[in-house]
Amino acid sequence: MFTLGDRTFTSRLLTGTGKFSGTKHMLAALQASESELVTLALKRVSLNDPADDLFSPLKAAGFQLLPNTSGACTAEDAILAAHLAREAMGTPWLKLEIHPDPRYLMPDPIETLKAAKALAREGFIVLPYIHADPVLCKRLEDVGCAAVMPLAAPIGSNLGLETREFLRIIIEQAQVPVIVDAGIGAPSHAAAAMELGADAVLVNTAIATAADPVAMATAFKLAVIAGRMAYEAGLPGQHQQAQASSPLTDFLLST
Ligand SMILES: CC(=O)[C@@H](O)[C@H](O)COP(=O)(O)O
């Protein structure tokens, strides 16, 4: 169980809704993942065109929706998108994404902090997508964000925990949940993030673009459970030299 904002979740796997080959496949994969919190771009809420509308089927399937501001390039864009999303989807939950750079989709830290401060003050439950910057995470926490979402690697890159050392520092210092987001390309990456002590991970591309998204969603579900279980069990320390597994066998040498 983990608490985020005013809610408690059983699943520590958050999922995205982009890049699936169709709504039916998306719903089947999300159900297999047992994810409870699903992010959705405001642009995928289409009240006029049912073929392009992800909101209605996701809502009907009972997922809690986490609208995101993907497409916003400035704080002003993101604040407008947040208001529209709250109207359209009826929720104050928000994944705040501001990435003006189309090549790497790197989040803009200055605009993100500015928008986060304004939106948190308005009562939004703000989950900002950011680079794995420990100082920025503390600043976002200070302005009232409900969690921080540092990236593992660029969105859609599937590169895994490229920011591992910085994630470790963020997790050590955070007073709010840390959700590792973006670039998680394999269940082993998700397990590694959870073993590090992340509260949750968000995965989209690796599930949506798998040859079998339902099987991949199941693999991610199990990896997140295993990673968290290992973290709670207490991972052993690492050593540069061998440590004998059965030290008592020394008796052969001493007789
Ligand atoms: C849908 C969403 O929010 C993505 O932008 C998110 O960051 C996931 O990234 P991946 O697609 O790399 O899993």
TrEMBL record:
<feature type="binding site">
    <location>
        <begin position="182"/>
        <end position="183"/>
    </location>
    <ligand>
        <name>1-deoxy-D-xylulose 5-phosphate</name>
    </ligand>
</feature>
<comment type="subunit">
    <text>Homotetramer. Forms heterodimers with either ThiH or ThiS.</text>
</comment>
<feature type="active site" description="Schiff-base intermediate with DXP">
    <location>
        <position position="95"/>
    </location>
</feature>
<keyword id="KW-0784">Thiamine biosynthesis</keyword>
<feature type="binding site">
    <location>
        <begin position="204"/>
        <end position="205"/>
    </location>
    <ligand>
        <name>1-deoxy-D-xylulose 5-phosphate</name>
    </ligand>
</feature>
<protein>
    <recommendedName>
        <fullName>Thiazole synthase</fullName>
        <ecNumber>2.8.1.10</ecNumber>
    </recommendedName>
</protein>
<dbReference type="InterPro" id="IPR013785">
    <property type="entry name" value="Aldolase_TIM"/>
</dbReference>
<keyword id="KW-0963">Cytoplasm</keyword>
<dbReference type="InterPro" id="IPR008867">
    <property type="entry name" value="ThiG"/>
</dbReference>
<keyword id="KW-0704">Schiff base</keyword>
<dbReference type="GO" id="GO:1990107">
    <property type="term" value="F:thiazole synthase activity"/>
</dbReference>
<feature type="domain" description="Thiazole synthase ThiG">
    <location>
        <begin position="4"/>
        <end position="247"/>
    </location>
</feature>
<feature type="binding site">
    <location>
        <position position="156"/>
    </location>
    <ligand>
        <name>1-deoxy-D-xylulose 5-phosphate</name>
    </ligand>
</feature>
<keyword id="KW-0808">Transferase</keyword>
<dbReference type="Pfam" id="PF05690">
    <property type="entry name" value="ThiG"/>
</dbReference>
<comment type="similarity">
    <text>Belongs to the ThiG family.</text>
</comment>
<comment type="pathway">
    <text>Cofactor biosynthesis; thiamine diphosphate biosynthesis.</text>
</comment>
<dbReference type="InterPro" id="IPR033983">
    <property type="entry name" value="Thiazole_synthase_ThiG"/>
</dbReference>
<comment type="function">
    <text>Catalyzes the rearrangement of 1-deoxy-D-xylulose 5-phosphate (DXP) to produce the thiazole phosphate moiety of thiamine. Sulfur is provided by the thiocarboxylate moiety of the carrier protein ThiS. In vitro, sulfur can be provided by H(2)S.</text>
</comment>
